[in-house]
Amino acid sequence: MSATAEPAATAKKTPPKLVFAAPRRGKPPRHLADLTVAERREAVAELGEKPFRADQLSRHYFARLEDDPEQMTDLPAALRERLVGALLPKLLDPVRELACDDGRTLKTVWKAFDGVLFESVLMRYPDRATMCVSSQAGCGMNCPFCATGQAGLTRNLSTAEIVEQVAAGARALARGHVAGGPGRVSNIVFMGMGEPLANYKSVIGAVRRITDPAPGGLGISQRSVTVSTVGLVPAIEKLAAEDMSVRLAVSLHAPDDELRDDLVPINNRWKVSEVLDAAWAYAERSGRRVSIEYALIKDVNDQAWRGDLLGRLLRGHLVHVNLIPLNPTPGSKWTASRPEDEREFVRRLEAHGVPVTVRDTRGREIDGACGQLAASTKD
Q1: Domain that holds residue 174
Q2: Does 85 show up as a binding residue in the annotation?
Q3: Which of 124, 165, 241, 340 qualifies as a FRET site for 113, CA 20 to 30 Å off?
Q4: What distances in angstroms separate CA 1 from CA 4, 305, 340, 345, one per listed residue?
Q5: Has 132 been annotated as catalytic?
Q6: pLDDT tens digits along 187-241
Q7: Is 376 labelled as part of a ligand binding site?
Q8: Region Disordered: what ranges (predicted)?
């Protein structure tokens, strides 16, 4: 295909199978982070204890980042065992951890109660520390260039399983286990395994636990939280109605329906124009700039004319483009764009007045693409 001419129309393709509902499995144990403040007090009362005990547990988990019951000395020993057993069960076990970037990037594979595996990544920068969390074990969106999408969906994660990924990263930073000395998590991105808006209830619950002021939650600003989606239009509209100030990130990856039908199969249901209309409505209601995520794939979606088309679609809107050099997976035919094609794509977007940055790719030497490390651990 020419890098300058747009392709001719082709015959309509059969849409690939998409999986929205997770397979039925046993539920994770109930955890403090699954519950609102009022629900925690009710749960403690059901155990025959005073509701203020729920506040004590919340303070240990969310404010003090404590995971050792022996350190919860304001609770009588016998009572501590009952409350911790009922409301702070162990949810996740780290089965593999890899570090890179001089110890400032830490990727963890977690095993849940039922043996499913998923990942989180802690990335420390000079001015911030970002946690990239998973919302599902696997993913049902079937994007062909994504390791997670090719693995399929195992199940949705619970609110507490999502929150615990953040809490674990916060503990690691607070205790100085990450290069650079003690610190705190400042940013959260729902860009790990899974499609966040396909697990809407758990993700919104996790956002509220993450952002509620301590000791109700972790006290991270909503403006420091980014929720990504491949373009589930009704869920984007529902998110807008939450009236939160989280940032919306749309994984677009192609500006034209013909290519996006292949790269992001959900496009067979909601086309580019519908996804962007929902994004602009979200930006208007939230006042937050929308992030357009675009993985640059060599000779697939990195042509200069596609940069022009993307620029025309986005110009004049409250938007920022985040170009992502593709982190190739083993054996995949997909690979990152040539540097000169990447530069030209950036130039075309800037010519339309669209703000654009190229993501700082981390973790290539530790199977950095979503799903790679979990897949290799499973094997």
Answers
A1: 93-378
A2: no
A3: 124
A4: 9, 12, 17, 17
A5: no
A6: 999 999 999 999 999 999 999 999 999 999 999 999 999 999 999 999 999 999 9
A7: no
A8: 1-27
